[in-house]
Amino acid sequence: MRFKSWALTLCYGLAGILVLVAVWSVLAATHPGTARFPSLLFIAETIDENLWNSAAIAYASFGTGGIVSNVLSTAVNVLIAVAVGLVVGYAVGIALVRSRRLANLSSLSIALLGTLPVLVLHPFLTLWFGVSQIAMGGMVVFYTILTIIEAVRSSTARAQDRWGDYSASLGLSGPGFITSVLVPASLPATLGTARAAVAFGWGFQALAEVLGGASGAGRLVRTFADATNTAGVIGVLICLGIVALITDAVIAALGKWAVRWNE
Known about the structure:
The chain is mainly alpha-helical.
């Protein structure tokens, strides 16, 4: 039954891709030239030409590398930023549940931070950290922290209300209660939120790189866009999407294994 559902989902996904390919092919055929709607064959040739080394980067910024190195750089930075945000957000979420005074003190601040558009952080990060990896990944870290705090706080609060008194009656409190009750209770929601944070992180990271990154897929998109190389821009996005899909599949598989007891 699960295999049938998975196969059906895959078929629908492939059908959607074929529709997109057909629409793009029609646009490319009705709009000659490569500036607006380059053909799929030309996009494939551009990817192959810039896969390992890009002449556009060497010309525009005396840089090295191609699509592979820059996309992998973005992927590594996204995963590091989400990992940092996950650790910080999880610790803060647990602390807010365990300390009512801390929760009351920080609730308004967290609510206000949650209303801020993530993009407005980029100018401040650039002023404070220049074009370093901290500035490029800052938006991903910020978004991950806020979403993880909310996921952990809601799931652990329910667990504490439901099993707190019962665990205390059995002599389980303090660190033992956190590791034995709160961590397992919050794990499914935390992993799901972390997966979503990675999905959003690709966009935040690439956008930061477009606005001022020294490396990464976003920098390559900006370089190709400045050269009016539409095929190059699309090629980078295709490669980034493939890496994102593979990463999401790996995270989903690891998450399913980690909470296999919850099935």
